[in-house]
């Protein structure tokens, strides 16, 4: 009679879903924060929504300011009254440039936040499958020497 006896430690087999990181990334791409919900990291969702929302808010504000100064400049060139009679043409042009650059910066930061959201969901899903147990630990700290001079260092030993 063949049998297997396990003594002392119990064995756990964690199922690894290789598609889990791809699903998390896809969910975050469809709706920012959904990949974090899929990974059960609910505390990250307000951060994702806050960063992307702030980027969109500042993009909208800078667009409105840009349009306001642009319209004032165009109205002045057409001979119509404008919103800023106290400013010269150069000031209106400079204000347009400033808000255009701020708008582009806001858009770029929003896009970066969107992609970081996707990357975070993917990496977090990968790390959920990481095996962390007692066999992975720091055993010794050693200070190697070279030509009789001490060189600070840290050794990490692990077993598979």
Which residues sit in consecutive blocks of at least 5 with pLDDT less than 50?
A: none
Helical content (DSSP H or I, runs of 4+):
55-70%
What radius of gyration results from the CA coordinates?
29 Å
Our count of helices gives 4
Main sheet: strands, sense, barrel: 2 strands, antiparallel
N→C terminal distance: 31 Å
What's the domain count?
1
Average pLDDT figure: 84
SS-based class: mainly alpha
What would the keywords be for this entry?
two-stranded antiparallel sheet; 56% helix; elongated; mainly alpha; 160 residues
Question: How are the SSEs ordered, and which strands pair?
Answer:
Blueprint: H1 20-30, H2 34-38, H3 45-78, H4 89-128, E1 145-146, E2 149-150
Antiparallel strand pairs: 1-2
Written account of the structure:
The structure is a single chain. Helices cover 56% and strands 2% of the residues. The protein has 160 residues and is mainly α. It has one domain (20-131). Strands 1-2 form a two-stranded antiparallel sheet. A hairpin with a 2-residue loop joins strand 1 (145-146) and strand 2 (149-150). Helix 3 (45-78) runs antiparallel to helix 4 (89-128). The longest helix has 40 residues, at 89-128. The chain is elongated. The mean pLDDT is 84.
